[in-house]
Fold this protein.
Amino acid sequence: MRQLAPESAAAATAATIDAVIDAAVQQLNHRPREKLGDRYRRLRRQSQLIAEPLSAEDCCVQAMPDASPIKWHLAHTTWFFETFLLERFQSGFAPFHPQFRMLFNSYYEGVGAKFPRPQRGLLTRPALEEVMAYRAQVDERMLLLIDALEADGADPDTGPQQAQLKDFLALLELGMQHEQQHQELMLTDIKVLLSINPLQPAYQPLPASMQLNDPVELELQWHRIDAGVVEIGHAGSGFCFDNETPRHRQFVEAYQCASRLVNNAEYLAFVEAGGYEDASLWLSEGWEWKKQQDLNHPLYWRPAGNGRWREFTEYGLQPLQPHRAVVHLSYYEADAYARWAGARLLTEAEWEHAAARLQGQGREFFGVAWQWTSSSYAPYPGFAAAPGAVGEYNGKFMVNQYVLRGSSSATPLNHARLTYRNFFPATARWQVSGIRLARQA
């Protein structure tokens, strides 16, 4: 997950953070009395709506070490508000349960002990009912703080004092953005869990009024981008995670950017041409990983006989739609396909520059699939993580991972932006990840 550095962060990010907080304060001063509380309620309700189609048994199981049970997601996002806001800002704070601090701590060494991530599915207790009671109590206390914050002449005994307003707003915004990240993870973790079941159960039924028709094929065009110095990274007002800063310059050579993502039909041609059996297309580590995992097609594709394929979706098994973007690919698969196609993956600087320039010309930059880039996940020049436990949100993960750009069909609608840097290991397949190609000009 990613982190917005608080006001006390190093000077390299302080100006950006101050702008974000100032914008939040201005918005608060001009919003209706209940608006911030309503936003918090909608956010928290959305997480519970994601879990609504599931049974209690569904919510407890962990499909693999990289995924988490839905019950854990619901508890951990609550833990964040309790640990980083209520504990600091609520007068007379007492935890809902003292052991929850350890059970639902993800990776914050500064907070204390953690329960092992691969064993989260073994936590049959607390029961889902108790986790929901935990959410309800924390929400009640958070809304008391928010209401006090929005009220004129707020009592410092029931809400943060004016001197603490900026810190409270920054942490509240971070907590809400953090929960949106987990909402996407909940959807992808549910999908991988249900896909393991031989019954291939649907997460939710396909509405009678909805048809999963193959979309019209988008023409593939190549847009030339001239060489030059480009600026990437977040600047100005509005929220961002700290890994999006500081804004800086990079030089890019001339290149061509594909107008859309690679679709299923194009990727199927790679599969049928023996792309998974040709070592010359694969990075060495990717080839060894592929052999160990015995992979020969994307994660959710299922052979249906006579050269036909089906795909596991939230609505269960559905016919593979040729013109939809291929998704659930690892970096290794994306890189091998690009090499087979006589192309390559974009760097993240190329992606951000192209996405900004090709508005109205390029397609599927957002809302379809996260797009693998060839850029290793590393700090921008001048990056500085914030001190303390919240500073662990992002910076310590800047190694052995690749950057993905854009957003996916599982990303909350108001969560994406041009400068967002997602990141995963090269082997990750369970996220909604796809391919946008580049070529030299």
In short: The chain has eleven helices and 13 strands. The longest helix spans residues 165-196.
